[in-house]
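G., the chain you wanted modeled:
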Amino acid sequence: QVRLVESGGGLVQAGGSLRLSCAAYGSSIRGNSMDWYRQAPGKQRESVARISSGGSTNYADSVSGRFTISRDNSRNTVYLQMNSLKPEDTAVYYCYYAPDSWGQGTQVTVSS
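Predicted structure as tokens:
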């Protein structure tokens, strides 16, 4: 089973940027799609972005145009660049490796 470790979260003002990283250990991500999810307090976990093994990307409507997912297979790492952050982006962000591997999450807090 792969172990995922997220980093890069923190407190930022509205309009600011953060870059999240997800490092995978125990298995190569090369042939897998990778996802970022988030969960805000009192809400269900929701999909934010996906990148296929070939590099194709998909985004939730709420982050499209502001967030960018990317991958570096040589580093076994996936990234989420988040720009123009809004208070409603406040959540714990999780990395996901199908079928059942989740990271511990990293907190992102956007102040107004």
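The CA atoms of residues 15 and 85 lie 5 Å apart.

Shout if anything looks off.
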